Amino acid sequence: MSTRDLVAGDYVLSVTNVRVTIHTLGVVFESDRRSENHASTYHLIGGTDVEGSAQINIVKASPTDTMGTLQRKFCLYETSKTALHNVELRAVQGITVGQVLELLDQKGRGNYKLAPSGVGCRFWVKTMIEDLESAGYIDLSSPAKVSQAYDDLQYSYSKSQDRELDPIIPGVFM
After folding, report:
1. N- to C-terminal Cα distance for the chain?
2. Residue among 54, 57, 127, 123 nearest 95 (CA)
3. Which end of the chain is flanked by fewer CB atoms within 10 Å, N or C?
4. Which helix (H) or strand (E) holds 99?
5. pTM of the model
């Protein structure tokens, strides 16, 4: 199994980097010329014998859902096979998966109403990155800056094609 739910023992793992990932979901209709995208975050694990990442993600679990479903997964990999674009932000030394999850819970980020069109993952990821930066969890000397992640989230990505501007449609935190 390459993923599993996070367990209490994972909470002490050190986070070295926060990777913002734009995934391909493939095309929905045969007439589509671009793939659908999904944004998520991977919190890369370092400093231990454990390799992998903690993926923290909001998804639309079923076609009729209006509320996002928060996923907290441990992945035995750092880079998703469906990744089209990544922005790597260096975490400050000593931050753990548990601290990231605690911040997420304190801010109520698991209670998220999707935009009326059923999208909203990019806004959710942007907000989460803002939270991490405000909490001092992103290293100010990181080669990639939070502003780059914000900018890159505003685009749609497809294999072998240029990115296209696709303004973020926000959901609502309840």
Report:
1. 34
2. 54
3. N
4. helix 97-106
5. 0.91
Express each pLDDT in 87-116 by its tens digit: 999 999 999 999 999 999 999 999 999 998
Pairing of strands 155-156, 164-165: antiparallel
C-alpha closest to that of 131 among 151, 112, 148, 108: 108
Classified as helix, coil or strand, 130 is helix
DSSP structure class, residue 133: H
Asked if 95 and 13 touch (Cβ cutoff 8 Å), the reply is: no
Q: Is 114 helix (H, G, I), strand (E, B) or coil?
A: coil
The pair of three-digit structure tokens given for residue 70, joined into one six-digit string = 């928060």
What are the backbone angles phi and psi of residue 41, rounded to the nearest 5°?
A: -120, 145
Closest Cα to residue 125, out of 53, 30, 42, 11? 42
Smallest CA-to-CA distance from 138 within 9, 5, 17, 26 is with: 17
Which residue's structure tokens are 């659908």?
36
